[in-house]
Amino acid sequence: MPFARLPDDAAKVSQSSKRPCGSSGKLLKCVSGLLECVATQASLSWTLLLQVWASWLSFATLFHSRGNKKESHAQPWGQEAFLPAAGMDKATWRQTGVSPVPSNISAHPPAKNVKVPHLDFVMPMKSVGMVTRAVVESIYKHYSPRRIFVVCEGSEATVMASVSMEWNIPKALLVYVDENEFFVKTMGMKKEDFVPFYDHCRDTTLTREFGWWWQQLLKLGCASCIETLSDVFIVWDSDLVVMEPWPLELQGPHGPVNYAAVLQEKARSSFNRLEYEGSVRHILGLDAAYPQHVGTYVAHHMPMSRRVADELVALIDSRLPGNAPWPAKLLQTSSLYYRMSEYMLYSTFEMARQRAGQPVHWAVHPFGQFGARGFRHREPQVFMNSLLQHQGMPWSGYSVEKLKAHVDHWRGTNQEEEETDGPLAHLQLEHVYGLPLNNPLLGGAQSPEPATP
Fold it and tell me: Which residue, among 145, 149, 141, has the nearest Cα to 167 in the 3D structure?
């Protein structure tokens, strides 16, 4: 069986902010000349003169930074870029739910090495598809994690174990976890036992299916259900291909700070936004948090701490009524709300911890840094047909190199597509399931055809 048995036991700063300008610059020049005259006439020692000059320079710099804000510009890799709310006033903090962060957090330049060989990834997966190979290869190529736990059905684990033999990854990288047995050890319940808690009577044009809710429960349950998981792990959606990697971990004053990239500019609709916000408020008793300037925390990936995830689950269990296990309680909220986001729950809880004075160990890259340079297709049938026409249909799925080559071709020939500045940072093709029929890598088995909605 392919399943693993779970064991029992500032950088860049604008040049304008580096030199005095405006009224403070003129004042500095005047005082500089005055000090020289005083030193000459009064025969002051140069040591005393330097002390006076240093004191004045500190004051003038502070005056300049406050009086000429319009002349300074936040740079992508400065403090504001990496920390959720650097410099945010309390009024804005209360309105957005984003906590201010300590001023002693240092700015970070672009990291040359973003590899995290000490961290595990967790990737819940509905079905192996034609872009699954590119997703996994891109993770390994850029981040080199210790392992990737793939949480899926047994049949899909068998398919993936076979076709991944042709992928450009180490064979021991993938570890399969049976989603049907995921909560058995901790709660004594199989996947089928949770189905009755989901509200099947809701308007199917507005709500999402049981499987969509189920995958969110798997992500929230990783910390307690995968015992060998690293203390900090990265949850990763199975349709997210990283092209230009963003740092997932950087050093802060209190140790490592783990980062997600804000990849989504806004909710798909105001209806979805209100449903997400309502479910967060109902489940956590907190207003949903949002990134400082633009975007949402539905980032399709998320660094999580096992300790924080356990605290989050404990809060959920204590707030929602009834004696059922917490995953069942969350499923019951489907009768009240059409949407729920595991990423918004986790990020809102993290921000609440920071507001309570906990050290900052979790933060985000702003939307403009990586998210704005994304290529996302919610209905990718046209793109997939073009990919098939130009790249053929490999039995094991498209490699990350072939996928990137076609994306570059597609962007160059489809001017009506949304344009992004600079190299592509990430690619997302939703609901692409299945591999070719009569696949020789699967012994000629009738695996599902590539499917899109």
Answer: 141
- Strand 120-124 with 232-236, pairing: parallel
Task: Record the tokens describing residue 77, joined without a space.
Answer: 């890799």
Rounded CA gap, 333 and 442, in Å? 40
Give the torsion sign (CA, 413, 294, 361, 215): negative
CB 337 within 8 A of CB 282: yes
Q: What is the pLDDT of residues 223-279, one digit of tens each?
A: 999 999 999 999 999 999 999 999 999 999 889 999 999 999 988 889 999 999 999
Alpha-carbon span 407 to 391, nearest angstrom: 11
Strand partners, 150: 123, 176
Q: Flag residues of the chain having pLDDT under 50.
A: 1-2, 4-109, 446-453
Amino acid identity of residue 369, one-letter, is Q
Q: Enter the tokens of residue 10.
A: 């500032």
φ, ψ for residue 413, nearest 5 deg: -110, -10
Q: What is the 3-class SS of the chain, one letter each residue?
A: CCECCCCCCCCCCCHHHHCCCHHHHHHHHHHHHHHHHHHHHHCCCHHHHHHHHHHHHHHHHHHHHHHCHHHCCCCCCCHHHHCCCCCCCHHHHHHHCCCCCCCCCCCCCCCCCCCCCCCEEEEECCCCCCCHHHHHHHHHHHHCCCEEEEEECHHHHHHHHHHHHHCCCCCCCEEEEEHHHCCHHHHCCCHHHHHHHCCCCCCCCCCCCHHHHHHHHHHHHHHHHCCCCCCEEEEECCCEEECCCCCCEEEECCEEEEEEECCECCCCCHHHHHHHHHHHHHHHCCCCCCCCCCCECCCCEEEEEHHHHHHHHHHHHHHCCCCCCHHHHHHHHHHCCCCCCHHHHHHHHHHHHHHCCCCCCEEEECCCCCHHHEEEECCCHHHHHHHHHHHCCCCCCCCHHHHHHHHHHHHHHCCCCCCCCCCCCEEEECCCECCCCCEHHHCCECCCCCECC
Contact between 125 and 219 under an 8 Å Cβ cutoff? The reply is no
pLDDT in tens, 86-98: 333 333 333 333 3
The answer to whether the pTM exceeds 0.90 is: no
| Torsion angles phi and psi, residue 195, rounded to 5 | -55, -40
What tokens appear for 169 in the block?
Answer: 């990854």
